[in-house]
Design brief:
The complex is a heterotrimer. In chain A, 38% of the residues lie in helices and 25% in strands. By secondary structure, chain A is an alpha/beta fold. Chain A has two domains: 6-93 and 172-260, Rossmann fold; 103-169, no CATH class. By secondary structure, chain C is mainly alpha-helical. Chain C has a single domain, classed as MetI-like fold, CATH 1.10.3720.10. Classes of the chains: A alpha/beta, B mainly alpha, C mainly alpha. The B-C interface holds B 1, 59-60, 63-69, 71-72, 75-76, 79-80, 157-161, 163-164, 171, 175, 178, 184-185, 188-189, 191-193, 195-196, 199-200, 203 and C 56-57, 59-66, 68-69, 72-73, 76-77, 150, 154-158, 160-161, 168, 171-172, 175, 181-182, 185-186, 188-189, 192-193, 196-197, 200.
């Protein structure tokens, strides 16, 4: 097996006195697609937000491509908190798609996708426009390039958000419940786009989701979170059809029940 | 009671002083816009000392009269070797005083931008400066533009205070004319009418802007 | 004089006039503001027009110009008054214009359903305003009214320019006689702050007390 692209070492996270992650070790391989499932409050979102540096790590380390994310080594090889420059350098490998899209409301769809390549990566405007348009074409929204986000449906917004994250060419892309803010009839179009990315790209994916069928379809591996720990971790067939841990069984049973119960 | 001939005689003198009033407003306003933003950023600083000191200064300036601040700048600064022209002292006073109001306006604008925008700026790896200039401020400023415009008009109407530190703007000009002819009615009325003629259309235009802004946000 | 003596001397000579002007002008502004605000909502076009003129004239010209006009021009028309009367009148009229806008928008912000409910309960127009609409509107006006009170208090410093012997006037006199410029104007700023700051805090507290459990 090759070097993992992301490695969590004994990662712990507290919010004040509340422990949300309890010494987690975890690895993601290059190109691997991992789905995170578990009840709300189980720590899966915090787990992903630490990788995006949206929450500060309390204890342990995270490595991205062999570089520490939250730390730097000083001359003696001891770890010290990362400088802003270091954090930004390592963070450039990670991208994220949010539950509530967070498009820039003051920019058109095209400007939303072009903004970071030009401003952050310093790419040439013309060239950035070209790749932004390619990316919009990929998510099927090139015809909306000049509209403002307010005029888009939720599904369209999320597809723009995906294009915006993808154009930065991240090595790892986090999806934080990308369809849970959408009306049911708009979920499909977003899942299709994510499926496409999963199928063609070498991008590693970390997908937090409640869509079990979709997780099964896309993921190489599913990790089940509960109480700040990863309780079980394995291929979808094992996790979904042959669960070992009682908590996982319980979770899946309750989940199947709610799925089949009439609306 | 009211002498039209006299009124037309003094009108040109008063009107020509209008440019002092207007340029004091403009320079003071630019100063207030810039310094106000600096207060806002200092108050938001992670450094507790910086944040508290800036907050304290802003509160002090806001809770004391502009007129007294003008006296302070004009009469106390020279005691420390910093003698200022009436115009400079007046503009600094106006700008500093209103910077504290604008800082509050900026704050409310910035707070109206949701936390998601900050998170996405991090996720797309924006640095702090670019996060402010490209993401946060372009969203924070437009909704508060009408309020900012209102402060511009308010400042314009406060400029007669600069006559107290001997700046010869329109009110002082009218006073001077009145003192030499013992007729205050026409000059002072003209000053009032000039203010009304300039500020009323401006505030009507602002109300239009406000309607447009509320529709959009 | 020591800094402390300066403060005592300023307070002794100017504080009463500053506070008296503040209180009288605030009362006048509040009364004018409520009358103006209610008239602005009248069904009679003419009444609305009259109030609109009052509001736009006093908001559109400068307070200092109004103060001078009342003190220097009105006597030409036979209306002679003391500096205190002129000060209270100018500040009261000026802030009354702003207050009437606060009152108007406060009343307009009360939910339409409240009017409909009072009509359904057969309240008269006056009862409806007094018992139902204004008590609710007042709570929403409080933050703005509080801000205006602070602004009004600060604006009383202008009365020194028509020779009313308030704090600012006394500071100028003291400055001319003692030449302790730095200490005098520092003391003056501190005095204004020490009065205005608790006022700001007090209005915030009142606001919280009034809204508690109601909004």
């Amino acid at each position: 097996m090759s070097e993992p692209i992301v490695r969590y070492n004994n990662v712990t996270k507290y919010f004040d006195d509340l422990q949300v992650l309890d010494g987690i070790d975890f690895e993601i391989q290059p190109g691997e697609k991992v789905a995170l499932i578990g009840p709300s409050g189980s720590g899966k979102t915090t787990f992903a937000r630490l990788l995006m540096t949206l929450e500060e790590i309390t204890d342990g380390t995270i490595e991205v491509e062999g570089d520490y994310l939250w730390h730097e080594q000083d001359d003696n090889g001891d770890l010290k908190p990362a400088s802003t420059d270091h954090l930004r350098k390592v963070r450039s490998n990670i991208g994220m798609v949010f539950q509530h899209f967070h498009l820039f409301p003051h920019m058109t769809v095209l400007e939303n996708v072009m903004e970071a390549p030009v401003t952050v990566q310093g790419r040439d405007k013309k060239e950035a426009k070209k790749s932004a348009e390619d990316m919009l074409d990929k998510v099927g929204l090139l015809d909306k390039a000049d509209t403002y986000p307010a005029q888009l449906s939720g599904g369209q917004k999320q597809r723009v958000a995906i294009a915006r994250a993808l154009v930065m060419d991240p090595k790892v892309l986090i999806f934080d419940e990308p369809t849970s803010a959408l009306d049911p009839e708009l979920v499909g179009e977003v899942l299709d786009v994510i499926k496409d990315i999963a199928d063609q790209g070498d991008t590693s994916i970390l997908l937090i989701t409640h869509e079990m069928d979709f997780a099964k379809e896309v993921a190489d591996r599913i990790a089940f979170f509960d109480g700040g720990k990863i309780i079980e971790d394995g291929p979808p067939s094992e996790i979904l059809y042959n669960p070992q841990a009682p908590r996982l069984k319980e979770f899946l049973e309750r989940f199947m029940n709610t799925q089949s119960s009439p609306e | 009671m009211w002498d039209w001939n006299y009124a037309f005689e003094v009108l040109p003198d008063i009107a020509s002083a209008l440019w002092v009033t207007i340029s004091a407003t403009l320079v003071g306003f630019v100063l207030a816009l810039v310094v106000g933003l600096i207060w806002t950023l200092l108050i938001r600083s992670n450094n507790k000392i910086i944040s508290n000191v800036a907050d304290g200064i802003v509160k002090f300036i806001r809770n004391t009269p502009l007129l007294v601040q003008l006296y302070f700048i004009f009469y106390v600064f020279p005691q420390f070797g910093l003698s200022l022209e009436p115009f400079t002292a007046g503009v600094i006073g106006l700008g500093l005083h209103y910077s504290t109001y604008l800082s509050e306006v900026y704050r409310s604008g910035i707070e109206s931008v949701g936390p998601g925008q900050w998170e996405v700026a991090t996720a797309l790896n924006f640095d702090t400066r670019k996060t402010w200039t490209r993401i946060i401020l372009p969203q924070a400023i437009p909704p508060v533009l009408p309020v900012i415009g209102n402060y511009f008009i308010t400042m314009f109407k406060e400029t007669p205070l600069l006559s107290a530190i001997t700046l010869v703007e329109i009110l002082q000009t009218a006073q001077n004319i009145g003192a030499s002819t013992f007729r205050y009615t026409e000059p002072l009325t003209i000053v009032g009418v000039l203010f009304l003629l300039l500020s009323y259309p401006a505030s009507v235009a602002l109300r239009q802007l406000e309607i447009r802004v509320t529709e959009r946000y | 004089m020591s800094f402390w003596e300066l403060i005592v001397s300023l307070l002794g000579q100017g504080l009463v006039i500053t506070l008296l002007t503040t209180v009288l002008a605030a009362i006048l502004a509040l009364v004018l503001g409520f009358i103006g605000g209610l008239m602005r909502l009248s069904k009679n076009k003419f009444i609305r027009f009259i109030v609109a003129i009052y509001v736009e004239v006093f908001r559109g010209t400068s307070l200092l110009v109004q103060l001078f006009w009342i003190y220097f021009v009105l006597p030409m028309f036979g209306l002679r008054m003391s500096a205190l009367t002129a000060a209270v009148l100018a500040i009261g009229l000026n802030y009354g214009a702003y207050t009437s806008e606060v009152v108007r928008s406060g009343i307009q912000s009360v939910d339409e359903g409240q009017t409909e409910a009072s009509i359904a309960l057969n309240f008269t127009r006056v009862q409806r305003m007094r018992r139902i609409i204004i008590p609710q509107a007042f709570i929403m006006m409080l933050p703005n009214l509080g801000n205006q009170l602070i602004e009004l208090f600060k604006s009383t410093s202008l009365v020194a320019l028509i020779t009313l012997t308030d704090l600012t006037y006394q500071a100028n006199v003291l400055n001319a006689t003692t030449l302790q410029t730095t200490q005098i104007f520092t003391a003056l700023l501190v005095i204004y702050f020490v009065i205005a700051w608790p006022m700001t805090k007090g209005m915030k507290m009142l606001e919280r007390k009034m809204t508690e459990g109601r909004m």
